[in-house]
Amino acid sequence: MKCYLINLERSADRLDWFVSNNAFPNWEIVRVGAVDGTTLEAANRASLLKQKKSDYPMPAGVLGCFLSHRRAWSRMLEAGDEWAFVTEDDAHISKSAMQLFSNSDWLPDDADIVKAETTRGNTEVSADSRPAKGGFRLRNLKAAHRGTAGYFLSRKAAARLLKLTEDYCDPIDEVLFNPELGLTGKLNILQLDPAISVQDVFAKRSSGLQPTIRHSIPKQKNRMPFGPAKIEREFFRVYRKSVRPRLLTWMRKSSFGQIAHADD
Q1: Strand pairing report for 189-193 and 137-140
Q2: Considering the entire predicted model, what is its pTM?
Q3: Strand partners, 131
Q4: What's the CA gap between 129 and 88, in Å, rounded?
Q5: Do 138 and 192 form a contact (C-beta atoms < 8 A)?
Q6: Where does the record place the Glycosyl transferase family domain (predicted)?
């Protein structure tokens, strides 16, 4: 299976680090030149920011990360891959995941994306699961689970995402893995359990890599103007945090942060 690795041209050291730390016999690393958001022309950046649908901030690094992942999807389509693994150059990939990269037979036909990453936080997944390979399970992802340092992507999903984001621009992990933005409702997204990928900043044995593609994201959000969109968003947020957990007893919270394989 191909691994599309997003890496800035100036970050040759990170490319070397990734290759040496994540050497598997059953995958082919394809470097995708990352977009440096700080080098975008002001007019181009302003045009992209007009396409934002949310109140999440989009500093230069986050904008570059969004464009970089779109570039990886395009490369995948050009190559004709039915499935591929997309990651970033600060990801630790578990050695126990080696068998998952030998082929794509274990990936369900109805799946669009299989998120393989942990950020060591809680997220909401289905209690029901189905087997993957080698003891791994697949669960439906039911709530926001941010991070884009490891996901299996189908060809059909790559084509659809490129179409959906032609006139849309938001932080890439919100676009892919936050149901509040709406795009995830158009895709069938599963979570690999246990997770096999973790960014260096969350790794138990961190190498001390600093973010380069996307710089630190400000915690303060821009405020959404009051109106129907804000009312709907607030209702959805309260529903997910208070009402829904009491009603949907068949769903469980799973702390992927407790899954050790990602640090092997």
Answers
A1: antiparallel
A2: 0.83
A3: 137
A4: 27
A5: yes
A6: 2-175
